[in-house]
């Protein structure tokens, strides 16, 4: 399986100029000044699912406007082709995300896009370059402290995807129904001044079969990475951010921007951590309130 899987992985390939020219257009949500951003060596995000109502576009825009990096990996399911085939849904905020990615590539950030199962239509362009964004089937990443990581989406190791693709589509429909419920729950929470909360994330961790599936998936991915002789693996696909050691392999999952709103980042010294962006926003707002109170007290 790995022989076929990695075909066409290496090489810069050609450049495709037919990508929509969005750089000259103004985004509907104005971009924050670059000097206010946290600096990272590398960022990994996946499972954005642009083209669906479940995508937390505003949170992702806030994240992109708050961070910067030398390299950005888009680890699959960035665009949800499955849902777009059924019903076209593309609000301005989703266009703003594409605009920001293209703008980041133009500014010099290396962006590597590894399509997943929901955006598998882009896999045919492996080795090409769209608007400064490299399309790869998988990639290897060397951290600042010398570790070698395999980066892939991970659907290739999902037993349901491999043997019962029809069941995956049924599960996708049920999942998006839950995302619709989650959308209305959070709309009500925003009106009440409450922070973002993921209904499906809580449900997934409460269901025994889901927990068992996640554990088995992580082990299969880690074993496949061990066969490649790497120190660790970064993947997405299951919408569950995680970091743990599985035998001698360091397993990282960068989460998603539908449920958890997570990203994986590498600091300048090679240290890696998973960010939960709703929590980061809460910390930022708490710090701002503290500053405001201090200013008011001083006045």
Question: Could you characterize what this model shows?
Answer:
- It is a single chain.
- The protein has helices spanning 2-5, 57-64, 81-86, 92-106, 159-163, 165-191, 199-206, 208-227, 277-298, and strands spanning 15-16, 38-45, 67-74, 110-113, 129-130, 133-135, 139-142, 148-151, 232-235, 242-246, 249-253, 262-266, 272-276.
- With 299 residues, it is of the alpha/beta class.
- It has an 8-stranded mixed β-sheet with strand order 1-5-6-4-3-2-12-13.
- β12 and β13 form a beta hairpin.
- Mean pLDDT is 82; it is low at 1-13 and 160-172.
Itemize the secondary structure elements and their pairings:
Blueprint: H1 2-5, E1 15-16, E2 38-45, H2 57-64, E3 67-74, H3 81-86, H4 92-106, E4 110-113, E5 129-130, E6 133-135, E7 139-142, E8 148-151, H5 159-163, H6 165-191, H7 199-206, H8 208-227, E9 232-235, E10 242-246, E11 249-253, E12 262-266, E13 272-276, H9 277-298
Give a brief outline of the structure.
38% of the residues lie in helices and 20% in strands. It is built from nine helices and 13 strands. Strand 12 (262-266) and strand 13 (272-276) form a beta hairpin.
């Amino acid at each position: 399986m790995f022989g076929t899987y990695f075909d066409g992985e290496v090489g810069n390939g050609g450049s495709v100029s037919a990508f929509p020219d969005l750089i000259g257009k103004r985004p509907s949500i104005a971009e924050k000044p670059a000097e206010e951003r946290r600096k990272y060596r590398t960022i990994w995000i996946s499972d954005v699912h642009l083209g669906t109502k479940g995508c937390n576009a505003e949170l992702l825009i806030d994240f992109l406007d708050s961070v910067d990096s030398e390299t950005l990996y888009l680890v699959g399911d960035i665009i949800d082709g499955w849902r777009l085939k059924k019903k076209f849904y593309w609000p301005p905020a989703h266009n703003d995300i594409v605009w920001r990615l293209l703008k980041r590539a133009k500014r010099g950030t290396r962006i590597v896009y590894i399509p997943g199962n929901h955006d598998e239509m882009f896999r045919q362009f492996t080795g090409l370059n769209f608007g400064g964004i490299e399309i790869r089937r998988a990639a290897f990443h060397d951290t600042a402290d010398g570790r070698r990581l395999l980066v892939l989406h991970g659907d290739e190791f999902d037993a349901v995807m491999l043997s019962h693709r029809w069941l995956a589509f049924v599960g996708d429909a049920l999942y998006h129904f839950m995302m619709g419920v989650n959308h209305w729950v959070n709309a009500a929470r925003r009106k009440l001044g409450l922070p973002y909360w993921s209904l499906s994330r809580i449900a997934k961790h409460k269901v025994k079969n889901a927990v068992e599936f996640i554990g088995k998936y992580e082990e299969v991915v880690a074993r496949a990475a061990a066969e490649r002789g790497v120190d660790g693996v970064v993947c997405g696909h299951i919408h569950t951010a995680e970091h743990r050691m599985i035998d001698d392999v360091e397993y990282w999952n960068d989460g998603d921007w539908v449920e958890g709103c997570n990203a994986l980042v590498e600091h300048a010294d090679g240290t890696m951590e998973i960010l939960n962006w709703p929590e980061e926003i809460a910390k930022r707002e708490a710090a701002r309130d503290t500053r405001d109170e201090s200013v008011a007290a001083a006045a």
